[in-house]
Amino acid sequence: MPDTGSSTRRQWQFDWRILLFAGVFLPLLVSLGIWQLERAEEKEQQLLQWEQQAESLSWPRQEARGLSNGRPVTLQGRYSDLTWLLDNRTRDGVPGYEVLTVFYPDEGSAVVVNRGWIRAPRTRDRLPRIDVPDEVLEIRGRLAEFPEPPVLADSETLDSGWPRRVQALPRAQAVAQESTLAAKVIRLSDSEQAGAYRADWEPDLMGPQTHYGYAFQWFSLAIALVILTVVASYRKTGANNDNDNG
């Protein structure tokens, strides 16, 4: 019987192209997997904060403890006549606006309240009619960031009067109208409150399990790359190869 063990074997053969390919893509795949794990951890913390039945702090107490996104708050006071209509907001494929109105609490700083979504009229030269309650109200909501514009985008508007249509509302632009504004916006927690429109906010639909799944895929690709690199770097050698070399 022929001695196949002595006539055919594998040995490492250096191929700089294979190693260069692995050296470039392996760190990339591993870093993508780690990033997805970090995103999953962030989402778990966000969902925990959103779902927890934490005490809904009054506005002065919340300001004293520091403003953090997602925190539930309650305020008592009045809406002002300063309302911005945040343009290009769709719900169920229907164009509309988000209604942002300055609210003056009985205590503490004034704050912009996102009262929810309203359908846009059929023509751009018309704005929707916005009703502003004139009585003292208690509102409930969660803290959020100002709707900042994309990088280098022009957030100014040529509209005058109120309500005023805007593409974005940086805090600096809002402060130009009301200097005492807080650093956060409040999104109303539901549509049943006085002065609310369609205020059915939800946290990000991509939960932590989705990010864990992506991380598993990236790490699996990294492992597969290592295995393929090792296999491709070992070449068969044997009697025929030896004779050819001789």
The biggest beta sheet is recorded as:
5 strands, mixed, barrel
Instruction: Give the helix/strand class.
Output: alpha/beta
Average predicted confidence as pLDDT = 81
Number of strands: 9
Q: For the CA atoms, what is the radius of gyration? A: 30 Å
Order of helices and strands: HEHEHEEEEEHEHEH
Low-confidence stretches: 238-246
Strand content: 25-35%
Estimated helix fraction = 25-40%
Termini Cα gap: 24 Å
Number of helices: 6
The strand line-up of the biggest sheet is 3-4-5-8-6
Shape: elongated
Q: What does this protein look like?
A:
The chain has 246 residues and is α/β, with parallel strands linked by helices. Helix content is 35%, strand content 30%. It is built from 6 helices and 9 strands. Strand 4 and strand 5 form a beta hairpin. The longest helix is centred in the N-terminal third of the chain and has 36 residues, at 16-51. The protein is elongated, with a radius of gyration of 30 Å. The relative contact order is 0.20.
Give the topology.
Elements: H1 4-7, E1 8-12, H2 16-51, E2 57-58, H3 59-65, E3 72-91, E4 94-105, E5 110-119, E6 137-144, E7 164-166, H4 171-175, E8 181-188, H5 208-233, E9 234-238, H6 239-245
Parallel strand pairs: 2-3, 3-7, 5-8
Antiparallel strand pairs: 1-9, 3-4, 3-6, 4-5, 6-8
Helix pairs in contact: 2-5
Write out key terms for the chains shown.
two-stranded antiparallel ribbon; five-stranded mixed β-barrel; 246 residues
